[in-house]
Amino acid sequence: MPIHSNFEFKNAIIATAIDGEGSIMIFKHKHGNKQKTTIDTKITITNTSLKWLKKIKKYIGFGRIHIQSGSKLSKKLTYCLTIEGQKNIKILIKRIMKYLIIKKYQAKLLLDYCIQRNSIKGKRYTKKQLFLPNKITLLNNGGDLNSYT
Predict the structure, then answer these.
(1) Domain count, the chain
(2) Is residue 139, in this structure, part of any structural domain at all?
């Protein structure tokens, strides 16, 4: 796919970072004794180069960088750029969708979810929305949705 502008070049770099070093997540959790379920969304890019993540953040225009707990295998510090909030996630995915390869389907599911939730603010989650975190987790773990019922 030819890239015709500096802005599109940066979008391709962001997509490559997410495909290679990133995660696209939808997860649900329960709040206290109320058993109220909340679904949260997040895109992360993790790397040992703080300089590189700062550049990606500058290209994106939003997000936050924090130190992440290192792995037992490496003594290097690991940093994580996190994009949260449905508005920011929608903006980012729309910019980079055409350049994603590995995580394109996860991005489409997340974008569809953000658009649906935005149109029905304050309403209960649908069964489909409550199932979505399972789908994303399966895809992120290299699973095949055809084998998942």
Answers:
(1) 1
(2) yes
